[in-house]
Amino acid sequence: MDAFLDACRRAIGATHVLTEAADTAPYLTDWRRRFTGKACAVLKPADTQELATLVRLCNEYKVPMVPQGGNTGLVLGGIPDDSGTAAILSLTRVNRIRQIDPVNNTITVEAGCILKNIQAAAGDAARLFPLSLAAEGSCTIGGNLSTNAGGTAVLRYGNTRELCLGLEVVTPQGDIWNGLRGLRKDNTGYDLRDLYIGAEGTLGFITAAVLKLYPQPKAQLTALAALRTPDDALRLLSLAQSHCVSALTGFELMSGFCLRLVNRHFPDMRPPFAEEHPQYVLLELSDSESEEHAQTMLEHVISTAMQQDLIQDAIVARSIAQSQAIWDIREHIPLAQAVEGKNIKHDVSIPISRIGDFIRTTDALLQQAFPGARMVTFGHLGDGNLHYNVAHPEQETDQSFLQKQTAVNRVVHDSVHQHGGSISAEHGIGALKRTEILRYKSDVEMQLMRSIKQALDPLNLMNPGKLI
């Protein structure tokens, strides 16, 4: 191991080869602080060439590699195991914005770029990069691509996969594939780009990407609607889509318990209604015509929904501050959960038409098996992605409840499967759900995935123990 570390120091400089416990600690524990792994070193290359050199050294010395970006993942995808044999390769220094092409509506960025910085660079060019999620101030685009992150604007713009035109990748052998083509049509063989997106660092290192940009909308309007049931929310979604079409960019479902948690732990954040309601929907419109046009559309949807008795109350933000206050409530749900105590998280995807039935059925099954369990249900209703989290009963400690995680997961994931859904929508599989997917994917599908892994990474050095 000393020979390997010495070679790494010669390749990228001793300053960027971290081995002391105090220096490596921030890279070894996951964001939710559930697990701390061990690593022989944290290696921080400055660019693609240095990364390729490190990968070749890892091959020479048979050192497993764990790619890491902002370390904001939720499924232990960027954390090594506890053997101490792997090296973490952190891409946070590989963070340049290489090019903005406003005519082609693209931006070329390196994997370590913070998502919020990409949004800002696009804004400086009078363009929009629409990927947006709670961790955007610290997550990196490489991690977003590796997990095919979703976020709040999937309804209009799609997942990260849909926002990417080309990639640069360092293979598990240390070769560099330059696929940074800003083309919307390129039918010249297998789509290698899509192979690496969502692979969670098990097939190679994404080092740069060409991303789609869009014209800045002339207006963005936000509304918060109070409803009785998720089924009413689905009917409101259909109504909003029929009236607003592609202008509808956000449609977030939040249960009443979610908002009570936020208000309990962040008293300044409360729904702007006189009374509590069972469900809430956050709607956002992004209009290319004018603010007046967007206002007319949104108010028409709200008034029609009230006439049809779909919503019980609603407020339309009249300022940027009001809009931000509504979004802050939504974004503080995970933070409020963390303050309330540890909980059992599920990032699931359900066919949109079956979401109401899934929530009703699964709520009942959990109450039957775990009386008093509290469901913290919220998510991107427009694309079928629910964060269906389960908190401990009031009279039980969170640590005691966490011991039932396997049983809780079985109820939720079996119900997801029975409703034609997926047990991972946007967080990935990582190490946390690696064995769980074997219950729900066919032998044929798993064997195809293993064949791809074996073909591209025969030594199994790329993020071992993750995904498959």
From TrEMBL:
Pfam families linked to this entry: FAD-oxidase_C, FAD_binding_4
* Top-rank taxon: Bacteria
Query: Does the entry feature the keyword Flavoprotein, yes or no?
Result: yes
> Sorted alphabetically, which keywords does the UniProt record give?
FAD, Flavoprotein
Residue intervals of the FAD-binding PCMH-type domain: 35-216
- Protein family (similarity comment): Belongs to the FAD-binding oxidoreductase/transferase type 4 family.
Q: What is this protein called?
A: FAD-binding oxidoreductase
The record lists the lineage as:
Bacteria, Pseudomonadati, Pseudomonadota, Betaproteobacteria, Burkholderiales
